[in-house]
Design a protein that fits this description.
Layout: E1 7-12, H1 23-42, E2 47-53, H2 58-67, H3 71-89, E3 95-98, H4 102-117, E4 122-131, E5 136-137, E6 143-146, E7 155-156, E8 173-177, E9 185-195, H5 200-209, H6 217-228, E10 233-235, E11 237-239, E12 254-256, H7 258-277, H8 283-286, E13 290-295, H9 301-315, E14 330-332, E15 335-336, H10 347-353, H11 358-367, E16 375-377, H12 379-409, H13 421-442, H14 446-467, H15 469-475, H16 477-498, H17 503-513, H18 527-530, H19 553-574, H20 586-590, E17 594-604, E18 612-617, E19 622-627, H21 635-638, E20 642-646, E21 652-654, E22 657-659, E23 662-663, E24 665-667, E25 673-675, E26 688-689
Parallel strand pairs: 1-2, 1-13, 2-3, 14-16
Antiparallel strand pairs: 4-5, 4-9, 6-7, 6-8, 9-10, 11-12, 14-15, 17-18, 17-20, 17-26, 18-19, 20-23, 21-22, 24-25
Helix pairs in contact: 2-3, 4-7, 5-6, 6-9, 7-9, 11-12, 12-14, 12-16, 13-14, 13-16, 14-16, 15-16, 16-17
Length: 690
């Protein structure tokens, strides 16, 4: 680890512009990286917080094909949505670029050429999967098949999302083209490979020995598994029609592999920022006194901890990441988040449905962050976090302090009298919190850090509850001045320490307490621990505002209903419909005698789990019909049901009982049997169906 770095370069994974941002992206990457960047700025550190849209690769091409538009239209559409979402949500990037930008194409091409001229690549003709019907080579995400490691039948050509294994498309068992659904063939093509095996010793020394004690176990474990399994050359070019041209002769029609191109986007985005700000970009990537930290999700660990470092090592002039604190996955209501299946809480929709509640989502995602294992987001938990924690603990404390100060002193901070032991202990405990929270943040334990922030609010609530100034004001008003002074110090500290986690709330609190924001003053993180007086006597504060309004059940139910509608739509889209049977003539159909009937009696057929014996009034008679519906209906459920009956079906003995007809059934989207029945009033038993 780098001790006392001169500057920090913080990168957040470049989001694919094939869809909007959802809560999984936020919890995994953007909220923790923003907390870290804001915290460092409060300490007065030199920070470059870098991100941008990842606009190349197969994901974009797939989205363009699906929507019937060009890749350029796709990236322009989603780049706009993503940028605005991040801005409205308060993610404080110093620069947000695009990999379609000229500066990125130039940077990535120059990086490739340097490695090419240094002889760092292997040029090989290999067999790749080719779709004969579409007449194109299939890039990774245009292939699906069975994972050779875990048996998942829906693995992609570059990765199995079930077991997390990184794959080559040719590794898949029973591969299928996602373009045409056909089985691809293997065809020869020339590509350039980065020989990762050359960097195995370097990676062992740098990560497995050098970062054994400071990198997260999930990151370290995945890297170790990869390195121990033996590294192989990795292709850095692809047969694609969208991306950055491979800048060497003989590479016509080929593009840089997105996982070669995308991480270089951090560098080109830094260049863009530095040019705008009149800075030199190189120290942020090439100075040994710079601390480089990559914030990513667990599906990107291999690329940021093996492939990109190998690229940087090969280039020779760049620093390596000091840490890669990757998070695990966040699920939604028990199911894996999925852009393609619309199973997500989209950030831009959340901002419309819950205006001015950015910090509630930031809080819920941080409090439930998947830092060491996959976690689950539920709307009920979101509601409880807001109502029972933010409103009941944080908001309640601030409201009581502000209301009482305005009630007793017309909003003016009182001059304290002599401090009691409790006062001194409380103020001493308050001064200790910045160091406690810092320790958690600097070890990338943001959930733990947030818990300590809430303990500051709990400290304030406990102090007021124990001291009871609303009672004391009647008997010892001078003592109350000291109590309210102490409470106001806690409230002010809470506003400062909240800024990385709850920036909108911190801003509101600055307005309520009429104290300068960090942008307007030199008040920083250490002020809380070093200053004996955060807000001075005689200072006039403003009126109380509701920081966190209660979220009612109706708002939450609306979101749950939206997800249920998505679930139903997915089932309908993925349902399988039996193909049409061979053509029947009118004469064939006219032979069928379909009648309306009513089930009068029903009982299970002994020793037959699936069969019910029914007595059915067909209008002509009451007959016995044996029906295979016992796994879906109890006898009691079907008695009185009106049904459609095929009455002239040849009798058939089933388990010793003669069945004299057939009841018409179908399946719903969940696979449950449903009666095909006449519900209209006035339809009598025995009525024919034609």
């Amino acid at each position: 680890m780098i001790e006392n770095p001169k500057r920090y370069t913080i990168t957040a994974a470049l989001p694919y512009t094939n869809g909007p941002i959802h809560i999984g992206h936020l919890a995994g990457v953007y909220v923790p990286s923003d907390i870290y960047a804001r915290y460092l700025r409060l300490q007065g550190k030199d920070v470059a917080f870098i991100c941008g849209s990842d606009e190349h690769g197969v994901a974009i091409s797939m989205k363009a094909k699906k929507e019937g538009i060009t890749p350029q239209e796709v990236i322009d559409k989603y780049d706009g949505i993503i940028r605005k979402s991040f801005e409205d949500f308060g993610i404080s990037f110093d620069n947000y670029s695009r990999t379609s930008a000229k500066i990125h194409h130039e940077t990535a091409s120059a990086f490739f050429r340097k490695l090419y001229e240094n002889g760092d690549f292997i040029e090989e003709v290999t067999e790749q999967l080719f779709d004969e019907q579409a007449q194109q080579f299939l890039a990774d995400r245009f292939v699906m098949g069975t994972c050779p490691k875990c048996g998942n039948e829906e693995a992609y050509g570059d990765q199995c999302e079930k077991c997390g294994s990184t794959l080559n498309a040719t590794d898949l068992i029973n591969p299928k083209s996602t373009i045409t659904g056909t089985t691809p063939v293997k065809k020869e093509t020339k590509h350039w490979f980065l020989p990762l095996n050359r960097y195995e010793a370097f990676l062992r020394e740098w990560i497995l020995e050098g970062h054994k004690n400071d990198w997260k176990p999930n990151v370290y474990g995945q890297v170790k598994s990869w390195v121990d399994g033996g590294l192989e050359p990795r292709a850095v070019t692809r047969d694609l029609d969208w991306g950055i041209d491979v800048p060497v002769e003989g590479a016509e029609g080929k593009k840089l592999y997105v996982w070669f191109d995308a991480p270089i986007g951090y560098i080109s985005s830094t260049k863009e920022w530095a040019a705008r700000e009149g800075k030199d970009w190189e120290p942020y990537w090439k100075d040994a006194d710079t601390k480089l930290v990559h914030f990513i999700g667990k599906d990107n660990i291999v690329f940021h901890c093996i492939i990109f470092p190998a690229m940087l090592k090969a280039e020779g002039s760049f620093i390596l990441p000091d840490n890669v604190p990757a998070n695990e996955f966040l699920n939604l209501e028990g199911n894996k988040l999925s852009t393609s299946k619309n199973w997500a809480v989209w950030l831009h929709e959340y901002l419309v449905d819950f205006p001015d509640k950015q910090d509630v989502l930031r809080y819920a995602l941080t409090a439930n962050a998947p830092e060491t294992k996959d976690n689950d987001f539920t709307w009920k938990d979101f509601q409880a976090r807001n109502n029972n924690e933010l409103a009941a603990v944080y908001g309640n404390f601030i409201n009581r302090v502000v209301v009482l100060t305005n009630k007793y002193y017309d909003g003016i901070v009182p001059q304290p009298n002599e401090f009691s032991v409790v006062d001194e202990q409380t103020l001493a405990e308050l001064k200790a919190y910045p160091a406690v929270i810092s320790s958690s943040i600097e070890r990338y334990r943001f959930r733990e850090a947030l818990g300590e922030l809430m303990n500051v609010a709990r400290l304030g609530n406990k102090y007021l509850a124990d001291e009871e100034p609303w009672k004391m004001v009647k008997t010892d008003p001078e003592r109350v001045k000291t109590q309210m002074y102490v409470a106001l110090q806690i409230a002010t500290a809470l506003g400062i320490l909240s800024e990385p986690f709850l920036p909108f709330t911190a801003q509101k609190l600055s307005r309520i307490l009429v104290i300068p924001t960090k942008e307007e003053s030199h008040v920083g993180w250490e002020t809380v621990s070093k200053s004996s007086e955060l807000v001075k006597p005689g200072h006039k504060i403003g009126q109380a505002e509701i920081l966190f309004a209660q979220i009612d059940d109706a708002e939450i139910q609306k979101q749950i209903d939206k997800l249920e509608a998505t679930k139903t739509a997915n089932k309908m889209e993925n349902r399988t419909v039996e193909p049409q049977k061979e053509t029947a003539t009118f004469e064939d159909f006219s032979k069928l005698d379909l009648r309306v009937g009513t089930i009068l009696e029903a009982e299970k057929l002994p020793k037959a789990n699936k069969l019910l014996v029914l007595k059915v009034d067909t209008g002509m008679d009451v007959r016995t019909i044996v029906s295979g519906i016992a796994e879906h209906f109890s006898p009691e459920e079907v008695i009185g049901k009106r049904v459609t009956v095929l009455v002239n079906l040849a009798p058939r003995a089933l388990r010793g009982v003669e069945s004299q007809g057939m009841i018409l059934m179908t399946n719903n989207a969940e696979g449950k049997l449903v009666f095909v029945n006449p519900d209209a009033d006035g339809v009598d038993n025995g009525a024919g169906i034609s």
